[in-house]
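Minutes, methods subgroup
Present: GH (chair), OT, SY

1. OT presented the first of two proteins processed in the latest run. Sequence and structure tokens recorded below as shown on screen.
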Amino acid sequence: MTSRFGFIPIHSQLMKNEEAFNKIAGSYIKNFERKGGESWTKENLKNPKPLFYMLVTGGTEELLLNLRNERNKHIQNEPVIILAHPTHNSLPASLEVLARLQQDNEKGRIFYLNGPNDKNGFSKIERTLRDLEVWFALKRMRIGMVGTPSDWLVASNPDLTTLQETWGPTVLPISMDEVKKSLQSINTKSIKTILESLSNSADEVQELLWTDLEENVKVYNALKQLIEGHKLDAVTVRCFDLVLDYKITGCFALAQLNDEGMIAGCEGDLVSTVGMIWTHEMLGQIPWMANPVQWNDDSNTIWLAHCTVPISIVKKYTLRSHFESGIGVGIQGTFSNGPVTLLRIGGVKMDKIWIAEGEIIQAGKAEDLCRTQAEVKLNNGTIRDLLQAPLGNHLILVKGHHLKQLTDWWKIFIDK
């Protein structure tokens, strides 16, 4: 079985022999191995998988710090996860070494196992392992930035090095010319199946000719070619250039890519795209990027709207024109009422967050807003907080209530 993580049992030089070591740590080690763990030594520290440090005895603080320094040469900024148990001064050693790590501005956490059969303790470790796997997945990701961020994203145009340092992904700038070149090579036959599915599954098609649908579905194929050619894990597109230069939109293309699990953000908004990637990795859910367009302070409600939405997360949809331009294809999806989580990341270092839980209470079809519309009533957090210290013009919506899970991850990996 391929291992999911490594763990290093650390003991003092006073340990008498292997028999004494196994008496203390053997049962813990067997449980770690059952959960996909592999016992590591210093030689394994280059391995890009999550690592736990088990302090078998006291007197191990300096040994852990030395291992941490070596690990940091290969895997930077990984939180130090320390496993403590009830005997042989494991806990006091854990407290001392975490105090030192925090003095050095390093992140870490102690998990206390009240014995080798501590189901609750091992359950917490399992959740943290999953959080670490998300962190490592983000570090491996390649985001294609197709064109530059839209001109109006004056607070959502992060330094690419800062983005990588804070969140992990590598960003590859890609010229819009590559998309335009691919568009010219795509023929109608290659899009027939997906075109028919899009049209036949829609509740209604308004304002559009069949040729409008054909030209806009070609954008999806063009982006697929680009994603495969550059080996991308996600993409964000300066999509309004398609409107201006080709009189088509990327609304369907981005919706379809998201439906396939390939996160695709609008308008070259890298910050929101990272938020979408994060929630998708954490929750396994397809997110929706949208503009907050109206709010009511008394009822603590907010309307969200955008001209694209992943079709799989709405109960029905109508194919419309793009709202701002009146051309191309926009998607007017209808959300079901139910629990949701809203969030926005931002700040110069992308280390700030606004997050709240709420309920979709109705969908809308107003003609003076982007096509897909949903009103959300917040259960915690307030719209006023968002207005007084905004982080940007887009919010991310995911179904369900996930504030604690997302906030816990944030505190370990991002919060300074």
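2. SY then presented the second protein from the same run.
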Amino acid sequence: MPDETLRSWLALVHSKGAGPAVLNPFLRSGITPEELLAEPPAQLGERQRLALKNPDWTGVEADLAWLQETGGRLVPQDSPDYPERLGALPDAPLALYLLGDPKLLTTPQIAIVGSRNPTRGGEQTARDFASHLARSGITVTSGLALGIDSAAHRGALEGGGPTVAVTATGLDRVYPASNRELAHAIIEQGGALVSEFPTGTAPRPGHFPRRNRIISGLSLGVLVVEAALKSGSLITARLAAEQAREVFAIPGSIHNPLARGCHRLIREGAKLVETATDLLEELAPHLQVYLGEAVEPGNRPGNDAPPPALDPQYQDLLEAMGFDPVSTDRLVERTGLPPETVSSMLLLLEMEGRVASVPGGRFVRTGNSTP
């Protein structure tokens, strides 16, 4: 984007006292950042107009220097990389600071959140779910906190997929500092660090709920793995419900205090899940819409263009199916893959039009299933 446009967006971000909830209605009506800064709307209060007239230019210059030094990006609301789902929120961030791949912002994402002090079993569960989702082509999103967040990011990396970490600080610092190595690994493996906070912003209590609304706003659904009754993860789940996102929770022992938050969510309507396949099946309609928007018309199943090449594991599964209807159990026997892996692979193959479900819980290859 032109330098002056970039400076204008940064100036909006640094107009203290005139935040997203105030400015979004004007931006969505077609008023540009330059116009807001030059002639603040009369509908605004005196304090807000003054903020727009006097942005923190020192902060703007610090951000510009950071962007140049690090290769970071600013993704404002008018960028094609700004995610539509997040942009629909009344208080959507004016812009996102980003290190890594901006294209990840518009991929189908599932958030995994939970306790900063989980049990060993809870941590492993988050890791396993994230790894499975990553292998299924889903971007795992979380908050780079200790505990479940870190386990989710690591699981996604182990699954070979990218992951998005949304922070409650400026991207010139990593919080907690012990996650610096993880943050570097996220970027190196094609992921992204994201924040709405300018450089130099330290972690403060009020920043974490703001971060949480971005985590849920980016995602199709939010999975809570372990959470006490006063956990910040319940804030993320509440925000997700308010944003019309799916909320999922994993149950635990009635004797485990970290299960009580999840049990409360389930009582309030969150969907109980036991496997990553449960998640994928619940979100299948949303994923279908997402894939439909993301695939170019020439590559849609049923067109003359050949479907994209499959990973070897998917090719092996198709070959194991043969050309007669076959059950999931039989495919597990033929491939040696875990049942939940076979189920999620079949789900994605069905969404791509390569297989179809038939009566009796069986699947059959279609004309688009040539590996």
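Chair's summary of item 2: The domain at 3-71 is CATH 1.10.150 (DNA polymerase; domain 1).
Next meeting: continue with the remaining queue.
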